[in-house]
Every structure is written in C-alpha cells, then in structure tokens.
Amino acid sequence: MSTGTLDGAILTLVTFIPLAGALLLLFLPRRDRDIRVFALVVTLFAFILSLHLPVHFQRTQTGFQYEVDRPWIPTPNIHYHLGVDGVAMWLVVLTTFLSPLCVLISWKSIHERVKEFFILLLILETALIGVFVALDLFLFYFFWEATLIPMALLIGMYGHGRKVYAAVKFFLYTMIGSVFMLVAILWLYSHTTPHTFDFVAIQNAIRAGQVPNFIGAAQWLFLGFFMAFAVKVPLFPVHTWLPDAHVEAPTAGSVLLAGVLLKMGTYGMFRFNLGLFPEQSRANATWIMVLALIGIIYGALVAMVQPNMKKLIAYSSISHLGFVVLGLFSFTTAGLEGATFIMLAHGVSTGALFMLAGIIYERRHTYEISEFGGLATPLPVYSSFFLFIVLASVGLPLLNGFIGEFLVLSGTFEARPAFGILAATGVIWSACYLLWMYQRVFFGKVTHEVNNTLPDLDFREQIALVPAALAALVMGVAPILWLNSIAPAVQAALAPIADLASKVTGL
Amino acid sequence: MNPLQSADYIRILPEIVLTLFGMAIMIADPLLDERRGPKILGLIGLVGSLGAFLATLYQSRFPGPAFWGMVQVDAFSVFFHLVVTAVSAIVILTSLEYIEVQQIHAGEYYSLVLFGAVGMCLMSSATELVLIFIALEISSISTYILAGFRRRAAISAESSVKYFLLGSFATAFFLYGVALTFGATGSTNISAIAQALAGSNVPLLAYVGIAFMFVGLGFKVAAAPFHIWTPDVYEGAPAPVVGFMSTAPKAAAFAVLLRVMFEINAPGRIWLIWIAAALSMTLGNVGALVQNNVKRLLAYSSIAHAGYLLMAFAAVPANGIPAAMFYTASYAAMNVGAFAVISHVAGAGERYVTLQDYAGLGRRSPLLAALLTVFLLSLIGIPITGGFFAKFYVFSAALQANLVGLVVIGVLNSAVGAYYYLRIIVAMYMREAREEIPIASVPPSLGIALAASLLITIYLGVLPGRVLEFASQAVADLSHSIVAQMP
C-alpha cells in the first residue's frame, strides 16, 4: 500500500468523527450559532476525509479494502471488522456528502433545542456510516439498531403534525423487522465452527458447505434478513411507515431518511441476501421482483394524486427504490450496477428535492400543492433549481437519474422481458407526477397573494443546493467514475449466482 | 466432623458485616436526634453494604466449602454477592433523599435493607436446601416489611399484605418441595441430591419436589404463572424499595434456581422452563402495553425480563449459566437506575408516577430525562447498553440449544416491549407538560447512585467480555462440583 498509515485508520476516522463531534457538542455552551458552525465544520471534515476513500481506491481489485480487523469482545467472538467494497464506499461518501447539506438546510428552520438537534444528527451520521462499513455481522446489527433512536427522536422532537405517531411507527416497523435478522445472525453464529460473526468467514463457510443444517435453514435465514431489509427499503406492502415518517420529519431528517436510510435496506440485500444466500436469492427472485414492480407502479400512481408535496416525494421514493430491488434481483451485471447507481443518484436528487420542499415550507409553512402556483415569477432562482432537480429525478439523459434506470431496465429486460416492459412504464409515471407537480406549483398565475412576497433563495440555501445539483450533473455526464469502482463488487456478488445458473441449466 | 476453622468465618464474612451494620443501625437509631438521624443511619447502611462488597472481594481469595458443606464460596457466589451488595448500596443512596421527602421513619428501613441483603447473599452461597430456605425467609420477611413502609398510604399497606400472604404461600411450596426432594433422595445437600438423581431411575417424588421448588422460586422472580402479585406490590411499595426488590432478591432467587436446575441437573426441566419463559415474556409484555402508571409498567416489564432470563435455563450449562448471570447483573444495573429516577420524580407522597407526569420531563430536567432514557433503552435492548448484551447472550444460548421456537417468541416479545418503553421516552421528549410539576434539584447522593448505575449499564454494554468471562468461570466452579461428586 503506497498511501501508508492512513489506509488502516481511515474508516474508523470517517465513522467516528461525527460521534466525537457530538460528544464535544455536549460540552459546548448553548449558543446556537456556534453550535451550527461547529456541526458544519465536523460534517465537512468528515466529508473531506471520506474523499480519501475513492481517491486511493484500487479499482481493479475485488474484495474489501481499507480493512481493519481487531478482536473486540472475546465471548462471543466479536471483531471490530471494517472494510468497504465499491458499493459500500460510495454509500459512505453519499452519507458524508449529504450531512453538511443537512446542517446548512437546518440552519434557521431549527431554532429550539438546537444543541440536541445537531447532536442527534451527528450520532445518526456515525451510525449510518457504520452500517456501510461494518463487516462483522454483530457490528452491523449494532449500527443498524443505532440508527433507529436518533432518527426516531429527530422525527418525534423536531417534526410537525402527527410527529409522535410517525416516530413511533417508524421505530416499531424497523424494530420488528430487524429482530428477525437478529435471530438469523445468531443462528449463523452458533452454527459456524469456530463461532464467528465475521462476514467473510461466514460467507466462505457457507460456500464451502461447512455450516451444518444450512440447507434446511437457509430459506428461513434468507427471509430473516430479507424481512429487516424489506421494511427499510421499503418494499410493498411494508412501506406504510415511510409516507408518515417523511411528511412529519424535519427537512434534514427527510434528507437523510430518503438519501441514506432507505439505502441501508437495499445495501443489506446486496451484501447479505445476495452475498450469503445466492441460491435462495435466485429461488425467491420472482416474488420479490413482483413486489418491486408493484412498488414501482403503485408508488408512482399514489404519488400522482398526492395533494401534499412532501408526501408526493415520499411515494416517489417507494417507486424509485422499487427499481433498485428489481435491478438487484435481476442477477445481471447491468441490473446490479444500475441498482447501485440509482441508490447514489436517488440519494442526491431526492435529498435535494426534500431540501427544496423544506425551503418552501420555511416560507409558507405548508406543503399543500394547491397553496402554490405561479411561483416561477416571484422565485426565479428557486424554481430553476427545482426544475433541474426534478429533471434529474425524472431521468433526463445527462443527469444522474437516467443512467441507473436505464441500466436496471436493460438488465431486467435481459433477465425477464415482461418485467422489464412493466418497469419501463414506471419511468413514464415518474415524469408524469413530478412534472405535473412542477407545473402546478411554478407555472400559471400566482393564485395566492402571499406567494408574491416570498423571498427567493438566500446565499446559505444556494450553498446547500449547488453541491447537490453539481453532483447530479457530474454523475449524469461521467457515470464511469462511479461505475468502474462498483463493477468489481458487482462481479464478486454475481459470481456464485452465475455458477449456480450454469449448474441449473447444465451449461 | 472437622472443627470450625477461621476460614469458615471468612466464607460468611459479607453476611457477618451486613448483620453487624444492620444491628448497629438499630442500636444507633434511638440515640440520634430526629433531624440529622436519618442521614447518619443511611450512611451507616451505605458503609455496611460497601463493607460487604469489599468483604466479598476479600473472600473471593478463599474459595471452598464452609460449615460442613452448607456454604460454598466460589466465583458463582462471589458474583451474586457483588450484585446484591452493589444494589443495596445504590438503593441506600437513592433512599437518603426519598426518606426525607416522604418523611418515613428511617431506623428500621436501612437495617431491613441490610438484613434483606444478608438473606440474599446467603441464598447464593448456600448449598444446602434447608439453609437456602432460611436465607429465603430472611430476605423475604425484610422485603415484606419494606414494601409497606409508606405507612400513611393505604396502597402501600395493601402491597405489603398482599406480598406477605402470597409470598408465604409460595415459600410454603418451596419448603414442601424441599421435603419431597429429601424424601426422594435422602438428603438436603445439593451435591448429594445431584448424586442421588444422577442414575437413570429417577423417582416420581423427585419430579414433584423439583416442580414445587420451582413454584416457590418462580414466585420470587415474578415468573408467570406466579406473577399476579407483581404489579400491585410494585405500585404500592416505595419506589426505591421496588428498585431493590425487583433486582436483588430476584438475582438471589435466580442464583438458587441456577443451583437447583443446573447443579442438580433437574430432570424434566426443559419443558417447565420453556412454558414459564414463554408465558412470562408474553404476559409481561402484553400487560405492560396498557399501563399508565410507570411503576406498574415496570412491574410488568420485570415479569417479561424474568421470562427472557428463564430462557437461559433451558440451554446447556456452559452457555446458560453465564448468560443468566450476566442478565441478572445488567438488569440490576438498569432497573435500579430507572427506579432511582422514578423515586426522585415521584415527589412527596409519590404523587407523580403516571405517564402524564413524565410529559415534558426532557425540558424540565434534561439530565434526569437523558438518564432515564438510557436505562429504558437498555431495558429495550439497544446496543451499547448492558441490556443488549444480556438479551443477546440469552438468545444465543437458547439458540445453541436449538430452541428456535422460544427464541422467536423472545425476539418478537422484545419488539413488542420496545413499544411501552418508548411511550415513556415519547412522553418525556415529545409531549408538552400539562401542568408544571416541580422537580427538585438532584442531591449528591442520588447523583452518585445514578452515575454508578449508568456507568455499569454502559460498561456492560461496551465491554461485556470481562464480566462474562468471570461468569463463565463460575460455570467451571459449578460443573467442578458436579464432577467432584462423581464417585
């Protein structure tokens, strides 16, 4: 390794700097402005550090990089094992990228209990990064659960409307989903010799057939993991927590929820369902893809009729995440690469959409589409940003939404043409609901007098939006920068499944 | 028969220390004036329990049997001695303020805590059923009286009487079980009983005897279907006492249960445990869902936790014993902590104990709310708290014994459980207080109690390795004595 000592410590640093920031914040005096600046500095620092990952990433190499593996607790045998492949690395960068934007967007909208807010936000960031870098199943579960509390508190303390209901619903859905995963993890632990939670070791043991009773239990284990991830994605029919959580959450909460938390589910499917149970993934692919398709179309149709801007974006997430699941379970290179790319692209563009919705909410204290109309005249800058992000989200070529959807669709079509055709309608739907919403909000005459007096974006808001817009553009123009580091990880995930396919078909 | 040696006395040193300090409190009580008396008596009690804690550490260097095999000092007994004495120290620290606010006469209070601790300590080191029974009675009678200490409140008297009547009934069951076991095996010594039952021909009487003992102990640990008393008693008893009796006597009863179940290798225990565990978890959690009184809620939660803990008893000794021991320790830390907060918030006459009274606590007293949140999260079983590893070890022990059904019931229950603990957290942070309820500032003694519980809870959640290792050593001790009795 040429980059020397930083490689070994970089993941630990990136993961725990936000937490360290949160601890320091505890002791800072309650001067709101200082607290905001401090949180911004911490998140920016974490982001800059995390850029080390893609810069020094060995793009041709498969397997995990920047690994750390130390014993943590002797009984049970738990290791502090971190490492990333191409997929996890970009999700880490996505998290650190969105966090400073979240701080900026919450600058004014959070004016009560400011200190607690930023402490929770920073703890959440650590937990999210931890989920993506953990390679020990126990550690993974640890971070997975750790995301719950700060998120639920952010919704419950700083949300609006039925915030408590939304927070509790969010917590319970995820909690119930993840206890099944815990049983599956414990089963794997107790059936490996020597007992281990290590992802790589368990994967090798399963592939080598060294896990007793695995054949009989595999389907249940697969479902145990899948339950937890499906709730998080969220896959139809366990999606009902999402609209509530999104609508009531504060803007920064929504951004992280849509931008990163949902990806925990799809990342989990990629890493654990496909990684540990390739055979069961293949066997269960049909119904999972059907659920994903229902999610794509149902999410889009429900989004279309929403009178509430934020709820519309929330349902659009269900639709977009359906594409990711569809791509993952198509077991084609294009499908998996596309799925990963959508995870990143959706994080950026939907994050930005929620930021935009939050900005207008700060001015009008409503998300009702009917309250707006003709905003393009009083708010030219705002409406341009909004248009740009809407187009990115719709999947206009040269912006980031296009590449992922195209890859997923071509992968799905290759694997199951009928599913591909149905999924393609989802692209049309998304154009319908987003553009129609845009038309109703920004075009025509100003119907409510108060909208004429709204101030346009200020400097801080522009600073928060420009990086997201830039990222959407760069990802659309030069997707290869991302795809070339994702490809080896995808190939590694597909290899056992391809073996299986050739065995089944006898080729 | 060997004459008594000084080592015999060292092996009951913590009990001696506790008894002496308990008596010292009774003697000092009438000599002190009304005003400063309670504080001084409390401090004597505190020194007593800390002294017993240190005595246990000293004693741990002299493992072995004492008093002709009636008492046994090993890692197992040392572990439970430490838990019991630490809990009594924290409870006394909590009580210092509580006693003053509630205007309770202090004298007997502290000595009863110490005498109760004597019984509990002895329960974990006794290896002879009659001595265990005596120890159980010492601990029970102290807690019966403690439960009724809010003399002016009718509910407290009800609590005490109910606990006393049902408790005596349960101890009678235990005693009957002891008698039947004696009839079946010809001995009351645990290792002799184990030896007698080791053969393939187990008399029916022994099954009945063990089952009766389980009834008696099941009552003490509040396991279903012997749990009915719990909510009423917890609701009426003084809050610090609830913190005490939901942890220390429970730990001691579990210690006895561990000896009876594992060292005797009780025949037919799996089904007994399976049903009791599944019932306790389910009834406890479902009951807690609809509670509005925080003390009642935690009473049901303690039934549920007894259920989780019982799961460990269905596992093989090598996994089950350390898991159960770890659970008692971490449950003790978090529950004592939670009740310390509750007894402070409750105020004079325990007026503020409903969920509505906790509304807005996050604003009125951020520190107390944050502490209670940590304890509740630990009770839910969220990572970096002791409660997480406690559940984790228990579940994995049960899973290694292939009790998948029980584990699934367990995890589903812990998800249900999350809901009602969350209700308290939600009330504290997300609801506005309807009326301003006064929160007194936290006195140093309570601060120390809370800090200690918090540190132990977090320590067990971050570095559980050492405690578990120590507990595993206790397994070696228990199985060592199992091996030693083999002819």
Tally of contiguous helical segments of chain B: 22
Q: Flag low-confidence runs of chain B.
A: 482-487
Taking the alpha carbons of the first and last residues of chain B, their distance comes to 21 Å
Overall geometry of chain B comes to: globular
Class from helix and strand fractions of chain B: mainly alpha
Descriptive labels:
heterodimer, A: 507 residues, mainly alpha, globular, B: 487 residues, 22 helices, 2 strands, disordered C terminus
Give the helix/strand layout.
The complex is a heterodimer of chains A (507) and B (487).
Chain A (H helix, E strand, L loop, with lengths): L5 H22 L4 H19 L1 H4 L9 E9 L4 E7 L1 H20 L8 H20 L3 H10 L1 H11 L4 H29 L7 H9 L6 H19 L8 H8 L2 H26 L1 H27 L4 H20 L4 H32 L15 H15 L5 H16 L1 H26 L16 H19 L2 H26 L2
Helix pairs in contact in A: 1-2, 1-5, 2-4, 2-5, 4-5, 4-12, 4-15, 4-19, 5-6, 5-7, 5-12, 6-8, 7-8, 8-10, 8-11, 10-12, 11-14, 12-13, 12-14, 12-15, 13-14, 13-18, 14-15, 14-17, 14-18, 15-16, 15-17, 15-19, 15-20, 16-18, 16-19, 17-18, 17-19
Chain B lengths: L5 H5 L2 H16 L8 H23 L4 E3 L4 E3 L1 H28 L4 H19 L3 H19 L6 H32 L4 H8 L6 H17 L8 H8 L2 H7 L2 H16 L5 H21 L4 H18 L5 H30 L8 H4 L2 H4 L1 H15 L5 H15 L3 H27 L13 H19 L2 H21 L2
Antiparallel strand pairs in B: 1-2
Helix pairs in contact in B: 2-3, 2-5, 3-4, 3-5, 4-5, 4-11, 4-12, 4-15, 4-21, 4-22, 5-6, 5-12, 6-7, 7-9, 7-10, 9-12, 10-14, 11-15, 12-15, 13-14, 13-20, 14-15, 14-20, 15-18, 15-19, 15-21, 15-22, 18-20, 19-20, 19-21
Care to describe what's here?
- The complex is a heterodimer of chains A (507) and B (487).
- In chain A, 75% of the residues lie in helices and 3% in strands.
- Chain A is mainly alpha-helical.
- Chain A has a domain at 283-507.
- Chain A has a two-stranded antiparallel sheet.
- The longest helix of chain A has 32 residues, at 333-364.
- Chain A is globular, with a radius of gyration of 22 Å.
- Chain B is mainly alpha-helical and 487 residues long.
- Mean pLDDT of chain B is 86; it is low at 482-487.
- Chain B has helices at residues 6-10, 13-28, 37-59, 75-102, 107-125, 129-147, 154-185, 190-197, 204-220, 229-236, 239-245, 248-263, 269-289, 294-311, 317-346, 355-358, 361-364, 366-380, 386-400, 404-430, 444-462, 465-485; strands at residues 64-66, 71-73.
- In chain B, 76% of the residues lie in helices and 1% in strands.
- In chain B, helix 3 (37-59) runs parallel beside helix 5.
- Chain B contains 22 helices and two strands.
- Chains A and B meet through helix 6, helix 7 and helix 8 of A and helix 19, helix 20 and helix 22 of B.
